[in-house]
Structure formats: C-alpha cells, structure tokens
C-alpha cells in the first residue's frame, strides 16, 4: 500500500508516456506522429519534476522564513529540455510541409507506396 | 489536499491523451495538445516548479500550437484510417510500460526528502546562491551562472533550428498582403491587437529582467516577445508584419544573441578569468555575477524572439494564395 | 472581525466563480450548435475567471500581488470577449449556419 501511495505519480506518468509512444508507432499520419512525440516529451518532463519535489517544500526562490526548498537542479534541466523540444517540433513540422509538397500526402503508408513505385 | 489536486490533474491529462489517440480531425487534436500543455503547466505549479510552468505554458501552449496550426493549414485536416490492426504496436507499448513500471518500484517515494537526488549538488547551490550571486531565484542562478555552459548550448540549438527552418522553408517577402479574406471586417480584433501590442512587448521585457527575482528569464521573454508580433501578423496581414520587421534585421538579431552570449564568455577570459566566469566582469564579484546574468539573459531573449519569428514567417509565407 | 468578513466575502466570490465555470462547462456539453456553445464558453471566461480573480484579490489584501491580480483581471476583460467575437466572426465567414428554429409557433 505504501508502494502505491509513494509511486502512483510515476505510474500515471508512465501511462501518459506510453500513450505518446503508441501514437508515434501506430498512427500513419505524420502530423499525428509529431504530436505523439510532443506528448511523450511532456510526460517525461512531468516525471523529472515530480522527482524533484520535496514534501512540505516550496518553490526554489530564496525568501525569509522558508527552510525547505524543492530541488532546483531538475528544473534547470527540464527548462533546457522544453526549449529543445520546441526546436525539434518546429523542424519536424517544417519537414512535413516539404514532404507534403514532394509526395502530395502526409500519410506514411501512401508515401511508402510511392517510394516503392519509383 | 495537494495529492487530490495532483490526482485530478493527472486524470485529466490521461483523458486528454486518450482523446488525442482516438480523434481523427487534426484541428481538434491540435487544440487538445494545447490543453495538454496547459494542464501540465498547472501540474508543474502544484509540484513547485514555477519557472518550468511559465516556460511550458509559453512554449507548449503558445508557440507549438501556432506552428501546428500553420502546418495543418498547408496540409490536410483529416487523418485516414490505418489499414492494419494495431495489435503489434499495442503489445510493444504494453510490454514497454510494464518494464518501466517494474523499474520504478526501486525508486524513492514521491516527495521523500532523503532521496539520493537531493544529496549532492542541490544543497550546495541553495546554500551558495545568496552568498556568491545574490539573486533570489535559484533556478536562474543555476541556469545562467553555475551551468552557464549548458545554456550556451541551448541557445545554439535554438539558433540551429532557426537556420534549419530557414533552409527548409525559406523566407519569402510578399509584396501583397497575405491575410484571411474576411479579417478586415473584424474591427474589434484589429483595435485590440493594436492596443495590446506595446503591452505584450512591455510584459516580455518585464519577464526578461525580473527573472532574477521571480519566475522568468530569457526563454519565456523571447517567446512572449515573438507572440506579440505574431498577433500583429494575424490581425493585419503578413505583408504588413514583414514590413514592420525587415528580413535582414531578423537574421542579424538571431545571430547577435548568440554572439552576445559568447562575447560575455570571452570577455571573462580577456579579463583574467576562465570562459564564462562572471566574477571578473566588475570590481565586486557579486556585481560581476549580476552583470553577467543580465547580459546573457538579454542575448538569450533576443535570439529566441528572432528565431520564433523566422520560423513563423517561414511557415506562413509559404502559402501561395490568401487562404489560411 | 474585519479579517473574518473579508475571508467570508472572498469565499463567496470564489464559490460563485466556480459555479459559473460549472454552468459554462455544462452549457458547452449540452448546447446544440456552435454559436450557442460559444456563448457558454464566454460565460466561463469572463464571469467565471473574473469572479475567481476578485475572490483571490480579497484574499491577498493590500500588496503587490493584489495589483498584479488587478492587472490580470483588467487584461482578461479586454481579451476574452475579443477572442469570442473573432471566433464567431470567423465561423460566420466560414459559412457555418446557426441552427434556427423553423417551427411555426
């Protein structure tokens, strides 16, 4: 029981990660794959930040009268990760626009068919 | 009580995730992704990560949604039904999920103050920040000063993404004004956009320089700054917005931010310290730290704003006619 | 005594804001047409969020936080109706017809 209380956060986040993973591998539309990757990345951020939280602590901004602060190091790492995820999403979407102009479709199955015909 | 809010937010996230899997209309899926970002930003606030919440709300719910909408406007809006049954992906996903859950059984409990992650550097940063840097926001001090080299790499990544989108999509300056056909009739939108643009830019500058004392910093400020100009482009048309910010200025600003950051590092070396050492920038080490942090946040804000605008203009100016 | 009255007043505002948010959410689910659903959403945005902000301002007392909340309230009163108006105009220009009651009565 204490296992459940201590870990329910991580298990729900793993369910979210697997949802994003499922979208990436099971849906043939390219834009949906990029969205699935975005969901996967955001769930990983939630996992890291929930590891940084301390019970009874406060945000890591130093103020008078507060003695326990949450761990600021994962916050810094996830800040960098959010910005990098934006960069990769933007590049992925730009590639999708060019693929659409080259093949006429954004569906992975149809792109495979067109590639095999050449 | 906090656990209750946690569970409610995580439950809403799960429902949104499942809805994104099932829906076929890509416009609805984009809006649900924006809701997912906002819910995780709320979850970050509950988990005491206020800086991360601001960044996730600005970047995930703001810019990513705009870029996805711009992509959908140029490609199709419906997703076709997959041809084969997704049995194998389901098995792979369940197996991976089970393996990960088995892996978390060894992890310390949620909220445990004795977890190994809290033992090494975190206490040192929390203790040294008031003495060496004098900035209340520990996340800013770690991001800009203790781990400043990582942040230089991050700015370079954003700059590379801008160059990548520039290479893929180009930047076409349109002579005529591309705007949705009926937008001139929505007078209210044009008035409010013109009224609020200076306020949005002022708010971005506030977040940039207030990042030392509260949540904020260069990345959030750059994104909000770009959002102001995107609002102007939506209300008044792409040609007007591109005339507002000339192309060469945008390209120059994107590079200037990275150069400012690297220049601060080299100045540290020229004044006798190591690369990106701020203590030697002024007579008093604490003042030197303040100066260094302010300069690099400025550089980061400039690059992020310019690159966001380059990416947005690259996406939108690629349409051949006026429908969007 | 004054603190208790302020606390009670702020609780009333917070609960009223929550009630309006609930009403708006039920409206979005139950209304038949895009335009009526848009009307329900605007109730959520202006009345619901506005009342919650006023309740929080009363909790904050006289401090910098209250000034910031006042500014947020002011900006929300401008931007929420504009967004709903722009959505409705966009739907009208996209030729989405409202559901009109055609019965003779």
Describe this structure in words.
The complex is a heterotrimer of chains A (118), B (324) and C (105). With 118 residues, chain A is mostly helical. Chain A has helices at 2-26, 30-52, 72-103, 108-117. Chain A has one domain: Helix Hairpins (Orthogonal Bundle). Helices cover 76% and strands 0% of the residues of chain A. Chain A is elongated and about 70 Å long. Chain A starts with a helix and ends with a helix. The model of chain A has no long low-confidence stretch (mean pLDDT 88). Chain B is mainly α and 324 residues long. Chain B folds into two domains: 1-119; 134-324, no CATH class. Chain B contains twelve helices and no strands. The longest helix of chain B is centred in the C-terminal third of the chain and has 32 residues, at 285-316. Chain B is globular, with a radius of gyration of 23 Å. Chain C is mainly alpha-helical. Chain C contains three helices and no strands. The chains are: A mainly alpha (118), B mainly alpha (324), C mainly alpha (105). Chains A and B meet through helix 1, helix 2 and helix 3 of A and helix 1, helix 2, helix 3, helix 4 and helix 5 of B.
Helix percentage range of chain B? over 70%
Greatest interface by residues involved: A-B, 82 and 99 residues
Number of individual domains of chain B: 2
What would the average pLDDT of chain C be, to the nearest integer?
87
Low-confidence runs of chain C (pLDDT<50, min 5 residues)?
A: none
Q: How many β strands of chain C by DSSP?
A: 0
Name its key features.
heterotrimer, A: 118 residues, mainly alpha, Helix Hairpins, 4 helices, 76% helix, B: 324 residues, 2 domains, 12 helices, 72% helix
How would you summarize what this structure contains?
Chain A is an all-alpha fold. Chain A has helices spanning 2-26, 30-52, 72-103, 108-117. Chain C has one domain (6-93).
């Amino acid at each position: 029981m204490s296992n459940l209380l201590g870990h329910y956060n991580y298990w729900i986040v793993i369910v979210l990660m697997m949802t994003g993973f499922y979208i990436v591998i099971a849906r043939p539309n390219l834009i949906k794959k990029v969205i699935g990757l975005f969901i996967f990345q955001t769930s990983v951020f939630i996992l890291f930040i929930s590891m940084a939280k301390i019970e009874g602590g406060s945000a890591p901004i130093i103020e008078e009268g507060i003695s326990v602060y949450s761990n600021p190091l994962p916050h810094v790492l996830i800040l960098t990760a959010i910005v990098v995820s934006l960069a990769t999403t933007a590049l992925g979407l730009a590639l999708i626009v060019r693929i659409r102009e080259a093949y006429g479709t954004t569906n992975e199955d149809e792109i495979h068919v067109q590639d095999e015909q050449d | 009580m906090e656990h209750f809010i946690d569970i409610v937010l995580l439950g809403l996230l799960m429902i949104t995730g499942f809805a994104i899997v099932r829906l076929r209309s890509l416009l609805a899926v984009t809006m649900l992704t924006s809701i997912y970002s906002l819910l995780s930003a709320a979850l970050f606030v509950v988990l005491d990560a206020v800086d991360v919440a601001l960044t996730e709300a600005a970047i995930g719910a703001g810019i990513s949604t705009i870029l996805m909408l711009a992509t959908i406007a140029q490609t199709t809006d419906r997703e076709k039904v997959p041809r084969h049954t997704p049995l194998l992906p389901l098995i792979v996903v369940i197996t991976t999920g089970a393996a990960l859950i088995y892996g978390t059984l060894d992890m310390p409990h949620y909220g445990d103050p004795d977890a190994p992650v809290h033992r090494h550097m975190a206490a040192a940063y929390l203790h040294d920040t008031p003495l060496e840097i004098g900035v209340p926001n520990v996340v800013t001090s770690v991001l800009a000063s203790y781990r400043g080299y990582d942040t230089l790499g991050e700015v370079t990544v954003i700059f590379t993404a801008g160059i990548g989108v520039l290479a893929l999509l180009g930047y076409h300056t349109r002579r005529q004004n591309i705007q949705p056909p009926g937008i001139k009739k929505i007078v209210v939108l044009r008035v409010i956009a013109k009224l609020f643009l200076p306020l949005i830019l002022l708010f971005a500058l506030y977040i940039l320089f207030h990042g030392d004392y509260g949540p904020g910093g260069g990345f959030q400020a750059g994104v909000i700054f770009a959002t102001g100009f995107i609002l102007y482009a939506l209300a008044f048309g792409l040609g007007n917005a591109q005339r507002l910010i000339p192309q060469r200025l945008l390209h120059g600003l994107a590079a200037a931010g990275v150069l400012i950051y690297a220049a601060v590092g080299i100045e540290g070396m020229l004044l006798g310290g190591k690369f990106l050492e701020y203590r030697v920038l002024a007579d008093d080490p604490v003042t030197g730290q303040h100066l260094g942090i302010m300069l690099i946040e400025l550089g980061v804000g400039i690059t992020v704003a310019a690159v966001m605008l380059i990416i947005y203009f690259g996406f939108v100016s690629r349409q051949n006619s006026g429908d969007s | 005594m004054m603190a208790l009255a302020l606390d009670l007043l702020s609780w009333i505002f917070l609960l009223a804001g929550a009630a309006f948010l609930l009403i708006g959410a039920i409206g979005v689910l139950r209304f038949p047409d895009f335009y009526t659903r848009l009307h329900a959403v605007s109730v959520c945005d202006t009345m619901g969020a506005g009342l919650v902000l006023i309740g929080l301002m009363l909790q904050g007392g006289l401090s910098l936080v209250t000034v910031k909340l006042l500014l947020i309230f002011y900006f929300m009163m401008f931007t929420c109706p504009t967004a709903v108006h722009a959505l409705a105009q966009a739907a009208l220009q996209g030729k989405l017809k409202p559901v009109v009651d055609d019965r003779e009565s």
